């Protein structure tokens, strides 16, 4: 059934206690923390189906999964670091695009009350003025190694705005910066920079290696948000935010990869040398978000100290 009228109206602040919440990717890194935060806010009915149960690249799976949902938070994604992105560009584009397109369309057909699409900082152009403002999203093409992933995710913003305009669908789009924290992915084939560095220095220390090789020049900058803060932001936006404009979710600071590496090296206690492999890419030159809109619209501001967050992440790594 295709509805062409504006059949879904704005609903404002939500009472999440008595609704069915579906979180795709709810068993992943951010997903587990998001489930915990929803429960902290008294949500009772939370579904977190796995990719083994429902392949969201398939339309029929999306039709089935949305049937009982009142709110959908779409976290599910194929993600990886620079190396993984370079080796799997087609897969990064296709898988992420198809999951989002099918899921949001079927959510609209099923009269889902609210769709929360989770984008990525990789949506931004390669050379975006710092701090990145939401108005800069369309001022250029993303950094090449991240472009297939970033563009696939950015299409969720286009779809959300189009469905809101034509159908009145209550859909919002959030742009988290790079996340870190307990439960992160430490797989050397697909991990992001913080878990990759933690593992590299920890293993080098354990093996008494004299040096550790790190990709790039170390000059690129990144911003990092503690995963529990990210979960808090998503829940706040789910409850309070109802506008077509995208919203940055970040901590509002930047650190060079060189300084990050030395910071992690110090916390881990590795005393060897760092060798910078300048034949490998740096990725996007700089990253830092303007976070004013999140503060204004739903009262979110990151509160976890970066050094404290790193120590908690490293502590978790050693515990598993």
From TrEMBL:
Molecular function terms, GO-annotated: GDP-L-fucose synthase activity; isomerase activity; NADP+ binding
Entry's EC annotation: 1.1.1.271
GO terms for biological process, alphabetical: 'de novo' GDP-L-fucose biosynthetic process
EC class (word): oxidoreductase
Binding sites annotated in the UniProt record for NADP(+): 25-31, 153, 176-179, 192
Pathway where it operates: Nucleotide-sugar biosynthesis; GDP-L-fucose biosynthesis via de novo pathway; GDP-L-fucose from GDP-alpha-D-mannose: step 2/2
Recorded family membership: Belongs to the NAD(P)-dependent epimerase/dehydratase family. Fucose synthase subfamily.
Protein name: GDP-L-fucose synthase
Organism: Candidatus Gottesmanbacteria bacterium GW2011_GWB1_44_11c
GN (gene name): fcl
